[in-house]
Amino acid sequence: QNILIVHGPNLNLLGLREPEIYGATTLQDINRNLSQLAENQGIHLDFFQSNAEFALIDRIQQTLHDGTDFIIINPAAYTHTSVALRDALAAVKRPFIEVHLSNVYARESFRQRSYFSDLAVGVISGLGAKGYELALEYAITSH
Ligand code: DQA
C-alpha cells in the first residue's frame, strides 16, 4: 500500500509557528512518527510539503502515475481558498482524509469553510499531531 502525506503552506514552520494553536511538534517529528508507524506493516509512505499551490497540485496530479492508493492531506490555508487544489483531488480520484491540527470550527469563521471536506473520506480537526496518526491507522486498516 502506498500512502502520500501532503502538507500545505506554513506547515514547514510547525513547532515555531503559533505553538499555542499548532503545538510544539515539528513537521519532521510528525513525519518521523508516521514513518515508524508504517514500518514493519509493509506500507510505503511518501511525504510532500510545499508553500506553493502549483507544487501541491503537481504532486497530487503525479498520483495518477506513481502508484499512490491513498492520500492524507492537510491543505492548511488552501483549505479555505483553493478550488484548484480541490479540482486536482477530484481529478485523480484517490481517496483522501483531510487533517487539521487545530479545531477549525472553534476559530475564525473563514476557517469553517473547506473546499475539500465533501470530497474527503473523512475529516479530522483539532486532535493535533495525533490526527495524522489516526488518519494513517484508518488508511492502513480500512483501505
Ligand atoms: C490548519 C488550519 C488552517 O486554517 C490554517 O490555515 C493552517 C493549518 C490546521 O492544521 O489546523 O495553516 O490546516
From TrEMBL:
Task: State the UniProt keywords alphabetically.
Answer: Amino-acid biosynthesis, Aromatic amino acid biosynthesis, Lyase
**Thylakoid recorded as keyword:** no
Query: What EC number(s) does the entry state?
Result: 4.2.1.10
- According to UniProt, where does the site described as Transition state stabilizer lie? R17
Q: Which InterPro entries does this UniProt record tie to the protein?
A: DHquinase_II, DHquinase_II_CS, DHquinase_II_sf
Query: Which SUPFAM superfamilies does the entry mention?
Result: Type II 3-dehydroquinate dehydratase
Q: Name one GO biological process term.
A: quinate catabolic process
Catalyses which reaction(s): 3-dehydroquinate = 3-dehydroshikimate + H2O
Q: What CDD domains does the record tag this protein with?
A: DHQase_II (cd00466)
Q: Which residues form the active site?
A: Y22, H100
Give the metabolic or biological pathway: Metabolic intermediate biosynthesis; chorismate biosynthesis; chorismate from D-erythrose 4-phosphate and phosphoenolpyruvate: step 3/7
Supply the Pfam families for this chain.
Answer: DHquinase_II
Which of the seven top EC classes does this enzyme belong to?
A: lyase
Q: Which GO terms describe its molecular function?
A: 3-dehydroquinate dehydratase activity
Task: Give the superkingdom in one word.
Answer: Bacteria
Q: Which positions does UniProt annotate for substrate binding?
A: N74, H80, D87, L101, S102, R111
Q: Which family does it belong to?
A: Belongs to the type-II 3-dehydroquinase family.
Q: What does this protein do?
A: Catalyzes a trans-dehydration via an enolate intermediate.
Q: Please give the subunit comment from the record.
A: Homododecamer.
In Swiss-Prot or TrEMBL terms, this protein is called 3-dehydroquinate dehydratase
Q: What is the lineage of its organism?
A: Bacteria, Pseudomonadati, Pseudomonadota, Betaproteobacteria, Nitrosomonadales
- Gene name tied to this protein: aroQ
